[in-house]
Design brief:
Barwin-like endoglucanases; 2 domains; single chain; alpha+beta
Amino acid sequence: MKNRIIFPGLLWVIAFLVLAGCHGRLSTVVTNYSAEPQKDYNRVLPPGELALRKITDPAQIPDYTKACSDLDGLKEAIARSLNYMAKPSSQKYYPYGAITHEQAVRSLRALEKLVDLKLSPGEMNKVLREKFDTYISVGCDDQGTVLFTGYYTPIFDGSPVRTDRYRYPLYKTPADLIKGPDGTILGQKGSDGQIQPYPGRADIQKSNMLAGLELVWLGDPFEVYIVHVQGSAKIRMPGGQIEGIGYAAHNGSDYKSIRKKMIADGKFTEKNINMKAMIDYFKVHPDEVDMYVNENPRFVFFKPEKGEPRGSLNESVTPFRTIATDKTIYPRAMFAFTAVDLDRPVGFSLDQDTGGAIRAAGRCDVYMGVGDHAGELAGKTYREGQLYYIFIKPDSDQTKEHSGQK
């Protein structure tokens, strides 16, 4: 957290930890010590309202030129979105407003071809502005303000079996977890045959009800919680090999941050609570981990995961090209433009993931990659900006025009 972070019109800000993400993620958030009222980034939209509004005034369309000069990894990310959109299950999430599934797919294909054309940044910007429609997120304030945070995939030491060092398990999905047809967690069947809520974190921990479902064992109880919050991890086994684990399900409880409780108990102030400080604190006070993490009733289950970490679309996520949003109000798999000043610029991205605390039009999580450096970047990502989505115009065929065809 080396860099000073300044918001327009705000005073100096200090980083503190907020747990949010892929099924819950760990992101460092910044406390604003301004006299101005804080924005409610988690403001819920009225029922039935979507997060995007079409821009009709060309003067309000952003300049994409700078983003067009950095296209590394973009084609790969688009291909992953197209792979998702080819699945029949993707069709149930469209139309998104006036955007049909067919137009959404055509937009991705056109953008993929546009990247292949290798136009100059200025030429590509012109095509995007003329041949595509731009939509802006209404944000948290109906003025387009979106809070951007970061998430990543940690690497921890672990073991496939319990040892004196590795005593803290991550679990596979229990057989008694009941899901609805759309994957919604319904709970478990009670003794009366009725479905009841699945136990929360504290009850699961105390009862040892998941014995026998251990997937992997870690050496630190707070590392277990970090993996729950991030939703995926790479585990370095005793032999040196790296094994991936990914999100499989959760117990159906809502995510709740543990930050406020630790501040209320005097463990930290708003000025000095951050990811590293909490990790260091729990290394000294491992006996307090359960007391605090049980404040969050959501409990996450995992499965082995080969290759790169996957997002909620069950497609691999791409560092700095994948974003996570609330999929009840944002369009799945679509091409986006992040107008935000981050330490590592993002520019164009694909909406391929979601998060336990990313539940409003005013929130967007950027995937930073794997390992400590990615964690450092994620840890200091807390900036306001705007979020745009790009769809090809219904009557446009930019690929022919700019490939020399008539």
